[in-house]
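Review form for a predicted model. The reviewer records the input and the model, then writes brief findings.
Reviewer: anonymous (R2)
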Amino acid sequence: MPFSPSVATDPSPAPVPRNRRADLAVVLAAAALAVWVTSGMWWSPNTRAITVNSSDQALFEWLLAFGGHAVTHGENPFFTHLLNVPDGVNLAVNTSITAYAVAFAPLTYLIGPPATFLVILTLNLAATAVAWYWLLSRYLVRSRLAAGMGALFIGYCPAMVSHANAHLNWTAGWLVPLLIWGVFRLRRPGRTVSRGIVLGLLVAVAFSIAAEGLFFTTLAVALFLVVWAVHPSRWAEVRAGLPSFVGGLAVTALVAGVLLAYPLWLHFAGPQRFHGTGFDPLIHSEDIAAYGSYPSRSLAGWAGLNTSLAPNPTEENSFFGIPLLLFAVACFGLLWWRAERTFRATLHALGVTAVIFAVLSWGPRARWNGRRTDQLLPFGMLDNLPVINAALPSRLALVVAPVIGLLLAYTVDRLRARPPRHRVTTAAWALGFTAALLPLLPIPLLTIAREPIPQFITSGHWRQYVSPGGVLTPLPLTVDVTPDGQRWQAYALAHRQGEFPIPAGFFLGPGGPEGRGRIGPVPRTFDSLMDQAGRTGLPPIVTEGSIRESLADLHHWRVEIVILADRVHGAKYHVDEDAVRRTATALLGEPERVDDVWLWRVPPA
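Model under review:
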């Protein structure tokens, strides 16, 4: 494919020779790194879980199982009453990964949700690097080495490896280069309709997998284009391409609007909707010092150079290290010094985009090395705006990594096109790349053994105790810190055993302060007592009033049986099963022993 100046913003029309060996080498490297990062689960995906984020893994496994079930049973994939009985859950305002759930439904039925989850996670990582390599090598740089280096950095940057801790949405970074490609090709005259249709389809797929990621990509591309377009060297090109661009965007909006009309209505006006999230933007903001720190799952982290500056281990969204930050500045300086005036417009736009998103990622109030200050930052003035109030500021740092990857690729490309005159200079650049990138090489994710699904569930024996449409609840109730119930439900759905709705669940729903969302339902007496027992190991004092309120809660949820497994998985703490059993016995009487669970029948109202 010829080098395209309309995308690369480099005026040279020189053709890029094909190099299939280089392409294959990058694809194999991307695949090898993906398997390496996820290797802790590959030898037994059904019995292993990601240590630092087993709750999100359970959620995504459930989403895969429910999506396949919805398709095969003609149910609504964007709303469910299997969770949060009787109100249900609006999946359009959750990360429902609908496109993945539908596309991988046959695989989910064949090998089960845990293995399908692992396949998608691994493919996400590899596909992200390959997609960026395709964009770089076909449109932006001439050197396959440059494209490979930039793509592998973006695909396995600290943020991507961090989000590989169970985030199937954020690891779908392969969508970003495709969206960029779709936007930039709108500038070419001709085929406006077909290009708009393609971009509209990409937008719909991106929304169904990672709506927040689509929002960030849209903001970043829009900011880049505005800064790039106002540069005097690009005015003539902007005027020439504007009619085609606007027409293509109109077609894109029409196609995406038609495909997403119902999900968007559910998102903004449907039942169980909310505004904002259940996460505090002050907590989920990037520490300024984190940009110069090293991530935990890297060579530097393995050597003990990591810090605890991230909101949690899945949100190391910057963590580039001081050497890479300094080297990125050096790359920018070299490129600016060698660039023609037209290419400086691209560099200027990249630099402005990276700086603005970095500052926004610091959240409403500045924080340095763990210490919060009272300094109000730009995000603090935007936090109450619709849609923006649903974004976590820390994740805005995800935009910075592709900018750095582009600078690395452009630098290698320029150095190969015009090598330095002195060997010392060449050695200095090689040393710079090594010092900046070697400490960031990823290491495998931490994994643990997951609690087995009880035989009472896997055998289908539960169907003898739950009437059609009847509700079953595990103890403690299913929430983000005790996600077993959704794993059990996912197993039953994927193995065609039928449905058993459960109260509560791990989801985002209404009920937070000031009308914002919250994680899970608003607590009631029964689940609060169970949570207290499991978390502290001390059974609470049970009174006649708490018994009445607990029975009222169970009747509100239409629960027919309550079960407790011998081993309960706690995502954040150890669950004391004995304390939970004694509390349930005080509330509901002596349990039955059925297979490998304790079972209580709920008396009718």
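Findings: Residues 455-509+519-601 form one domain.
Further findings: The chain has two domains: 17-46+112-440, 455-509+519-601.
Recommendation: see findings above.
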